[in-house]
Amino acid sequence: MAHGKRYRQAIERIDRSRHYPPAEAVRLVKEGASAKFDETVEVHVRLGVNVRHAEEQLRGTLALPHGLGKDVSIAVFAKGQKARDAEAAGADFVGDEDLAKRVEDGWTDFDVAIATPDMMSVVGKLGRVLGPQGKMPNPKVGTVTEDIEKAVGESKSGKVEYRTDRQAVVHLSIGKASFDERALLENYAAVIEEIMRAKPAAAKGRYILSSTLTSTMGPGVRVDPGKTAERDILSAAGGGGDGAGAGAGPAEAGEAAEASAPA
Fold first, then answer.
1. Residue of 156, 152, 154, 158 lying closest to 67 (CA atoms)
2. Phi then psi dihedrals of residue 175, to 5 deg
3. How many whole angstroms separate alpha carbon 18 and alpha carbon 220?
4. pTM, entire model
5. Which of these three, 102, 131, 157, is where a domain ends?
6. N or C: fewer beta carbons within 10 Å in the chain?
7. Which is nearest to 74 in space by CA: 124, 163, 142, 132?
8. Closest Cα to residue 210, out of 224, 198, 221, 200?
9. Residues 101 and 207 in one domain
10. Which helix (H) or strand (E) covers residue 41, if one does?
11. 186 Cβ contact list (under 8 Å, min separation 6)
12. 202 near 55, Cβ under 8 Å?
């Protein structure tokens, strides 16, 4: 695939024979984010789990210490007082059957969907629309709840949902290229620590196979997968790991398969 001049200049800065320490990887990603808009910084973590077995699939939520750097739009399916609570908490769209009908007709212009348990008989029918987008409310991740105010507040403050895809890769945004390096690094550390905490008991062998940081329009930078403790991730840049080098950007999924997956 042909890439533009900015991309080619960015990838020239990357040593493709290294796994970078996290701090150095973040710096390279920021340097490579040269688009005219504020690019999103993403992490793609490939795990040594067999996602064909339900007990080895990962799914959960975490709160990024520095948020995502964007306004999170929230749709809440609720009635009566719960609907009023959602509006008071700052939900962008609130409704019951009327909101469900809009979604059923194809409208999904929101980032997070939250529902009260009594609305799931209605919301459950929206799986065909919301499921593929990862927006289906789920009690396991706190988006089917009676505590609507708490759920809306957490989502607004940077709580994100993660899951393994069919290739056992977790894809997450961790902020914007305009964030300072420390903020991005702390968000990255929060992701890695959560993935380690959620390690399935049935997982055997190497757990984190690879980790790649990239920006919306920039090339991927492979990160040392052995650095999983917060103190190691937040340590100063310098030195390098061994093994494969920096991968390509999201558009080059095949080449980056050893380190990540397409964004």
1. 158
2. 140, -165
3. 12
4. 0.73
5. 157
6. N
7. 142
8. 224
9. no
10. strand 40-47
11. 65, 66, 234
12. yes
| Domain termination site, one of 136, 157, 178 | 157
User: Which residue, among 188, 232, 229, 194, has the nearest Cα to 212 in the 3D structure?
Assistant: 188
**Do 150 and 82 share a structural domain?**
yes
| Residue 101, domain member (yes or no) | yes
Domain at 61, CATH number: 3.30.190.20
CA–CA dist 256, 263 (Å, integer) = 11
Query: Whose CA is closest to 252, among 239, 263, 238, 243?
Result: 263
Query: DSSP string of 105-162?
Result: TT----SEEEE-GGGHHHHGGGHHHHGGGT----GGGT-B-S-HHHHHHHHHTTEEEE
110-143, pLDDT tens digit by residue? 999 999 999 999 999 999 999 888 899 999 889 9
Express each pLDDT in 39-94 by its tens digit.
999 999 999 999 999 999 998 889 899 988 888 899 999 999 999 999 999 999 99
pLDDT of residue 9: 67
Q: Are residues 53 and 125 in the same domain?
A: no
Residue indicated by tokens 């380690």: 196
Residue 249 has which token pair? 């950007």
Q: Are 4 and 35 in contact (CB under 8 A)?
A: no
Is the pLDDT at 256 greater than 90, yes or no?
no
* Token pair belonging to 71: 């306004």
Angle at 215 between CA 38 and CA 176, to 5 degrees: 40
Q: Is 257 inside a domain boundary? A: no
